[in-house]
Structures are given as C-alpha cells and as structure tokens.
C-alpha cells in the first residue's frame, strides 16, 4: 500500500490527527483513509481531489481537537483517531484501485477500528462495505445510504465498476443484504423502471425525496433504523454529498436539485452514528474543481466530524438530550 506524499498536495492529516501506517496499524478507534479515485465517474470528474479538500476544509487550527458544542464531546481526543493517508488509486486502473482500497478497509476493520473513508467517487462504496463485511461477515452489515441516486445500475460503458453501480455489486455479491439496504434522498430522473424493479425484487427500502418531505425526515429515519438493526451486527453509513441540494453542495459531479439541506444531513448523520452500531463510514463525491468557496468541502468535513462526535457520544453511554441548553450545567 503506497501512501501518497506530495502528489495531491502537502502531507496533511484530517484536522491534524496523528498519521498512521496501514501496514502497522496502532490501537485505534477510528482510522481515516483517503480514496482519491474518480475513474468511475460518468459525468463531471474531480473527486480524486476530495480527500485532501475534506481533510483541510476548516477555519480552526488543525490541532487534532474539536470540542462539539452540541454533543459535549471532543471526538478527536475522546476517540483514538488516526489518518492513514491516501490509498494509491490510479483512476485508469479501476480493478486494481478498488482491490487496494478493499484490502485497506478490511485491515482497519480487522484491527478493531472503524474505517472512515474520504472519497473519491461512489465506486468506492463497493470496496468499502465489502472490506468491512470481510471482517464482520457477508450479510451481517446493514447499509444506510444517503444519495440523490440509487447507484444500483448494472453496467455503464460496458463496465461493472463505476459510481452508478456499487450498490448492485454489494447486493449481488452477498456482502450486504438487499433487505437491509436503506436509501434516503433519492430524486430526479434516474434510474429507469427496469432498475427500480430489480431494486424492489431485492427488497431494498428506498426513500425518495417526495416521501421524505411528506412524512418528515425523522419519521423515515426512525423506520429505516428499525430495519437496519434487525438481525445485523453493524451498520455501514455511506454519504454521497449530492444528497444535499446543489445550492448547499455545488462541488459534486452529478448535481440534482431539490435535495436535503446541509442542516438536515448533519442531523441525520448524527442520529445514525448515535443510535446505530456504525462499523464504517464513507463520504463521497466531493469534487473540488466544481466547488465554489469550498462550500461542499466544508460541509463534508463537518459530516465526518458529526459522525465522529456521535460515535464518541454513543460510546460515552450517558443519555443525550438535544433540547438541553448550551450553557446548562456549566460555570
Ligand atoms: Mn449520487
């Protein structure tokens, strides 16, 4: 496994957490992995620059500390968080790239840590969730998937590998059960009826934005969580930043208007990681060349922090009340 040095920029880590080597993992709760791959992209490229942008998009010191106002934890200190750098993923070699990433993720899971993968296009969800399933067992990990797109295509451009197909590969291989696959935020004009029929036959549960608006996001999440935690040993959380409206996440390859707000996504990620036994996370489809004022990179950075904060708060064990005033119990 090669760790990129200066190829994609300075040798920095996520907000200054300690670096680690995938070949000699330390005792860790969370290991961050960069997956700079955009060879599966069908339209606008650029997500190979996502990991670097997500690591750096923050106005505070990169000092390995982030006390959460809302959750009253410091995820980068309460958890042992390391950054393993970027896996070598040449976008011209999709098969080699996803094999390398799957090995990296499986190694982190086998070491007892939660892999948090920074994409990259959504192709990487296939090796990400498979890498975790290699450790926990095929069919034992549910998948909660935020996205504008179902990503259940069969082949595109004659290839099984691509950012529109990872979810089908995960179900076909048995890594994830179709009936433990929860999708939230779908909208727009893809996929077509044949693919939707295939999804229904797999007994996937896919929440299109119209249903989310009609019922409310929280109601849909509560229902999805009950399915995700039924007869499973962990949950993989896959967040495509294009689930958020392009007005709040413009830097992405396949923007689809009418999505969640940034606030809704952060709250939903918090709920997932606080209420569910999350065993892996990926945050994908941040394309810095199409971003404006780093809006999307800043959001993705906070998605990662929100996930880590909620994991830290869940591990602390005491109940969390979202209505508690900020300064209550202080001073
Ligand atoms: Mn998408």
UniProtKB/TrEMBL annotation:
One of its GO terms (biological process) is putrescine biosynthetic process from arginine, via agmatine. Its EC number is 3.5.3.11. Pfam families: Arginase. SUPFAM superfamilies: Arginase/deacetylase (SSF52768). Its cofactor is Mn(2+). Coiled coil: none annotated. Keywords: Hydrolase, Manganese, Metal-binding. InterPro entries: Agmatinase-rel, Ureohydrolase, Ureohydrolase_dom_sf, Ureohydrolase_Mn_BS. GO terms for molecular function: agmatinase activity; metal ion binding. PROSITE patterns: ARGINASE_1, ARGINASE_2. The keyword Translocase does not apply. Mn(2+) binds at residues 122, 147, 149, 151, 240, 242. The keyword Membrane does not apply. Binds 2 manganese ions per subunit. Belongs to the arginase family. Agmatinase subfamily. This is Agmatinase.
């Amino acid at each position: 496994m090669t760790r990129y040095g200066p190829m994609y920029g300075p040798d920095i880590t996520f907000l200054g957490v300690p670096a680690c080597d995938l070949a000699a993992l330390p005792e860790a709760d969370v290991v961050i992995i960069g997956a700079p791959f955009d060879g599966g992209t069908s339209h606008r490229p650029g997500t190979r620059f996502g990991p670097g942008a997500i690591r750096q998009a923050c106005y505070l010191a990169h000092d390995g500390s982030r006390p959460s106002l809302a959750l009253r934890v410091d995820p980068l200190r309460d958890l042992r968080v390391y950054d393993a750098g970027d896996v070598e993923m040449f976008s011209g070699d999709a098969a080699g790239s996803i094999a390398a990433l799957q090995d990296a993720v499986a190694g982190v899971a086998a070491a007892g840590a939660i892999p948090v993968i920074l994409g990259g296009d959504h192709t990487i969800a296939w090796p990400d969730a498979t890498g975790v399933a290699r450790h926990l067992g095929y069919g034992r990990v549910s998948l909660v998937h935020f996205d504008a797109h179902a990503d259940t295509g069969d082949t595109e451009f004659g290839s099984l590998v691509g950012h529109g197909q990872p979810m089908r590969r995960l179900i076909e291989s048995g890594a994830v059960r179709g009936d433990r696959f929860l999708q939230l935020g779908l909208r727009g004009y893809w996929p077509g009826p044949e693919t939707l029929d295939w999804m229904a036959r797999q007994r996937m549960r896919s929440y299109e934005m119209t249903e989310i608006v009609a019922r409310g996001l929280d109601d849909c999440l509560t229902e999805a969580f009950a399915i995700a935690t039924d007869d499973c040993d962990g949950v993989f959380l896959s967040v495509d930043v294009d689930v958020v409206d392009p007005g709040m996440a413009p830097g992405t390859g396949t923007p689809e208007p009418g999505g969640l707000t940034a606030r809704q996504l952060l709250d939903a990620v918090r709920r997932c990681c606080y209420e569910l036994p999350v065993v892996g996370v990926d945050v994908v489809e941040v394309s810095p060349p199409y971003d404006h004022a780093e809006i999307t990179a800043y959001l993705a950075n906070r998605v990662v922090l929100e996930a880590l904060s909620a994991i830290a708060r869940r591990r602390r064990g005491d109940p969390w009340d979202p209505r508690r005033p900020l300064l209550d119990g202080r001073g």
